[in-house]
Amino acid sequence: MSPYYNDKTLIFADGNYLSPTELKGDSYSQTLHYGNGVFEGIRSYKTATGARIFRAKEHYERLIYGTEVMNIPFHYSINELIDITYKLLDLNGFQDAYIRPIVVAGANMGLGSAGESSFIIQCWEWGKLMGDKLLKVRTSSFQRPNPKSCFVDAKVTGHYINSILARNESSVSGHDEAILLDINNNVAECSGANVFIEKDGQLFTPPKGHIMPGITRTTIIEICQEFGIPVEERHFTIDEMKSADSAFFTGTAAEVVGLKSIDDYVFPKSWEETHGYRLMHLYKQEVLGERSNNYSKAI
Ligand code: PMP
Question: pLDDT band at 293, cuts 50/70/90?
């Protein structure tokens, strides 16, 4: 029994809506052998007016960017992609859902461009990934990839080996997650989310360059700017993180989730008193399209 589908589930595959069990994969696909595929992780939320896909345009722009830099053919427009995704949610009867589009490169046992691709969208009903508890994280022994060795800002399937290694290491040592440093020993991000720290009432998050520039990260920066919460994109070290008052992760899956500790350092500020906590509530309103512009109403 799959945790992702049942006998009523439909997926989109190259123009057809079919059961995941009817999908024919190509065992010669370059994605399977070399990790050259591009995907997205998108959320849809149940609202009073029906399913609302959060920042669908931005997610599909990032998908298209990934196919361009990886030279994988892909010919859908953003509007087509959004229409297909809403139709798929509707066919499945989903509103609160996680949506996973993937561009799979065609058969090629060599390293040149595969020349053709398949496009699949899967979705499943979904609650919260990490829940409301504060996370206990560690510094990973794995670095984020050098941006000169790949396009770190593209959501390429093969890049996730790095995240899987970091996540496995963190679970073995009894942690919920891992913080990965960049090649210059600055804090980069978590295995699948971006990181913010709070120090003396000011937020800091690593700049673009060595990170996946998360759509949630951008949303949070925009909310901060709107509400006058000071936020700066700049590098910081793990030692600096260990002198912060609090910290949180942002991502489509995680939304905004607070950290309890990093290695032996416990963040001293009570989560309920941090900017992160307020942003967590503002973000929840933002995704539902019902954000109040009154800061105090956010909690
Ligand atoms: N970093 C990594 C490595 C990720 O995989 C993700 C998830 N796409 C993020 C950050 C957060 O990005 P987003 O807010 O767009 O989900």
Answer: low
CB 222 within 8 A of CB 269: no
Asked whether 209 lines ligand 1 (CB < 6 A), one says no
Specify the residue with its C-alpha closest to ligand 1, atom 3. Answer: 192
- The boundaries of the domain holding residue 229 are 135-287
- Tell me the per-residue pLDDT of 162-220, one tens digit each, with 9 for 90 and over: 999 999 999 999 999 999 999 999 999 999 999 999 999 999 999 999 999 999 999 99
Positive or negative: CA dihedral 286, 103, 4, 82: positive
Pocket test residue of 252, 255, 257, 287 for ligand 1, highest count of atoms within 8 A of CB: 252
Given the structure tokens 């020349």, which residue do they identify? 115
Q: Are residues 104 and 194 in the same domain?
A: no
Residues acting as catalytic residues = 155
Is the model's pTM score more than 0.90?
yes
Distance (angstroms) between ligand 1 centre and the Cα of 155 equals: 8
User: What does R_g of the chain's alpha carbons equal in angstroms?
Assistant: 20
Cα-to-centroid distance, 214 and ligand 1 (Å): 5
Please check whether residues 112 and 143 belong to one and the same domain: no
- The enclosing domain of 240 has a CATH number of 3.20.10.10
